[in-house]
Every structure is written in structure tokens, then in C-alpha cells.
Amino acid sequence: MEKQQADAIITEYLPKLYGFAVKRCYGYDEAEELCAQIVEEVYRALRTRDGIRNVGGYIYTVCERAYAGYVRRRKRDAAIPLDQIPEPAADGLETDEAEDEMRRVRQALAYLTRQRRVIAYAYYFEDKPVAVIAAERGLPTGTVKWQLNKLRSELKEGIYMEHKIGKLGLKPVAAAAIGHSGDPGPNRGPDDYLGDKLNLNIVYSVYWQPRTAAEIADELGINPVFLEDRIDLLENKVVLCVPEGSDKGIDSFDALAEHLKAEDILFCMGNSDVPVGQYTQKILAYYDLDEAALAAAGVITYGSNVKEVTTQVTEGSVDAGVVYCTDAYSAGLTPVDEATKEMCGRVIYPAAVMKAAPNADAAKAFLAYLQTEEAMTVFEGVGFSAVAQ
User: pTM of this prediction?
Assistant: First the structure.
């Protein structure tokens, strides 16, 4: 792309990029640094890469990636580097300090993804060479090396993070009685599962809000290893979009809420039987907005699926709409804001190898590939994000 055109794009997006950084950083200095990083990466890509079909979508992906890096750096800066872990005492017995540090290393390993944890244990605790690990796991040696590099970064960033125990870990719930109507099926009734105190508290912990395995583990104060039978592969964001050239000043969910309260815009959302519509309902509730009253006032219009919402926004027949980031990308829309976990929870896409898979080894290899940097680059290119651990 020519310099003049790239300069124009940066000038157009700079206020939004700075606003993105200010909303997420802990100070203006950090926001300026994050914004500068985003601008540098975007500008370099505009000048050197051809075929960026959706510039807005690409910029949004860069913002997400840069912010994830910012979060990791803050964790790392607050941590003691991995290479400062005390070595075992010369007599073969660990000092109290070294023993405590190694306990924390093992705790951090528990919060890695299953495949990365298995590779870490084999490499660091069983002293297995990369080639042996690759053969045992049915993975290319390059994938094992990449996983080892990634896990070392994750250990440096997360080893001294405090995993705070939630209320259920300190005061677990107990059920006076568990009942059900009808006869139990071949898989038994709920009392067979929820009669176990751990199972009961796992179910209770996710009743009010969705949680990842690591979040459940923190809430209950247990090792996440015991909760794993799948991986959380991808995350989608619930985002706010407006028509191109909109002059309504809707540049954030906060601004959207103010306009809805004033009843001076037309807003589009998915029906209540559509997942994105349910997430939008949570956002309205977060801002104490009465959906029924707004709909009666003619402020809200509905789409029976996400595509209908993006179409109304693209055509400019509404002033704003809430969709998934991937759908915004597909429709050529540039999100102006994304909902936080506090607003509506998280949209997580898990993956697992089925227990009865006829080709389990091939399925495991494919699942492993989906977690590689190469595959994640493809996912990020269409609006998905890696799941933040």
C-alpha cells in the first residue's frame, strides 16, 4: 500500500486506537505505549502486506493481540523470573526456600493446557528428549519445540500469579436433598452425580455464570487437572458495531447505554432464542436497561440470526448492533467496542477427542495441530482469539 494511503488509515483510526488503549490500561503512559505498539504493527503491515481485505477487522485483531501481550507483560513484571528459582542444596536435600519455590512451579504447571503440561512434565521432570516426546505424543518435533517455548513463557508470566480461592473453596455448599421427577435413565439420576460434594459445587459454581476449568478450580480451591476432559480452544468476542460513517457518537457500550436511555437511536439485537441475543440481554441488564420497555418504545429491532443483525448495521437501517467479532469480520464491519466478561460472560469454544473416536490417534494429532501457532494465526485472521488462561 502506498505511504499516503497508509498514513490516511492511521490518521482515521488513531483516536479509536488510543481510546481502546485508555479503556484497558492502568495509566495514560501505558495506554500511549500500547497505542504506539498497535500503530507500529498496523502501519508496517499496511506498507508491506498485500491483500488485507478487511482493514478494520485486521486492526481489531492487532488490538486484541497487543492487549493480550500487555496483560502478559504486567503479570511478568510483577513476577520473579523463572531462572531465579533456587537450585537444590548440594547434599541433594532441598532447602525450605527451594522446596517452596518448586511447589509453586508445580502449581503453575497445573494451570497450563493439558498437552503443554504433559510435554512439560516429560521434558523437565522425566528428562525425555524432544524427539522421544514427539514420537510418544504423535506430534512433529517442531510442534513440541514450539510448545516448550510457549510453556516457558507461560511459566515466567504465571508462576507467581496468585490464584485466589473463591467462596466455594472456603465454604462449599451442601444439599439437604437431591430429587428428580420420573425414573432415572441408563446414565442414572442427578442424585448419583450431585451426591458427591465436589460435583455438587462444580455445578453450583457455574449455575450463575459460565466459567472455564481454571476459573472453576480457583473458585473451589482445587487443582484444575482434575477438571479437564477437554480444552478451551478459542474465544469469540461480543462486540458493538455501527454503520460506516455514523455520526451518532456511539463509540462504546457506555455510549450505547446512554443513547438507549435517551431513546434517540434504533438498536438491533438478536432474538432471545439466538445465543448472541442472550448475551445482548445480559449487557442490557448490566446497564439496568429494560429491554421490553425499549422495544415497546420502538428503540429496539430484532434479527432472527446474527446475519440479519449485521445486514441491518451494514445497510445503515439501524444505528448500532451487537454481534460476535467473527460475524463482524465476515460482514466487513469494524467493531467500536467489545463487551467485558462482567457484562455478559465469555464465549468459549471447547474441543475434545471423543472417547469412542474410531480414529483417536488422528483426532489427537489434529487437536494438537489446532493449538499450534500456525493454526491460531488462521483463527485470529477471521476474528477469533486464543483463550486467555
Answer: 0.47
pLDDT in tens, 75-130: 554 444 444 434 433 433 344 555 554 555 566 666 666 667 778 778 877 788 88
Residue with cell 537444590: 88
27: exposed, middle or buried (C-beta count within 10 Å: 0-12, 13-18, 19+)? Answer: exposed
Cβ-contact 345, 279 below 8 angstroms: yes
Q: What is the rounded CA–CA span in Å between residue 170 and residue 200?
A: 15
Q: What is the SS3 assignment for 261?
A: helix
Phi/psi for 238 (5° steps) reads -90, 120
pLDDT tens figures, 223-251: 665 565 667 789 999 999 999 999 999 99
CA distance 328 to 286: 22
Strand ranges (E), 218-370? 231-236, 238-241, 267-270, 300-303, 320-324, 337-338, 347-351
Residue ranges in 187-324 assigned as alpha helix (H): 190-194, 197-205, 213-220, 253-262, 275-286, 291-296, 306-315
Q: Please choose, from the candidates 164, 266, 272, 265, the residue with its C-alpha nearest in 3D space to the C-alpha of residue 220.
A: 164
Pairing of strands 231-236, 320-324: unpaired
Q: Which domains does the chain have, with CATH numbers?
A: 3-77 (1.10.1740.10), 82-158 (1.10.10.10), 230-389 (3.40.190.10)
Q: Which cell numbers hold the place of 268?
A: 438491533
Distances (CA, A) of 280 to 24, 82, 374: 21, 42, 32
Name the phi and psi angles at 274, rounded to 5: -105, 130
3-state secondary structure 44-86: HHHHHCCCCCCHHHHHHHHHHHHHHHHHHHHHHHCCCCHHHCC
Q: Pairing between strand 320-324 and 267-270?
A: parallel
Strand order in the sheet with 347-351: 347-351, 231-236, 385-386
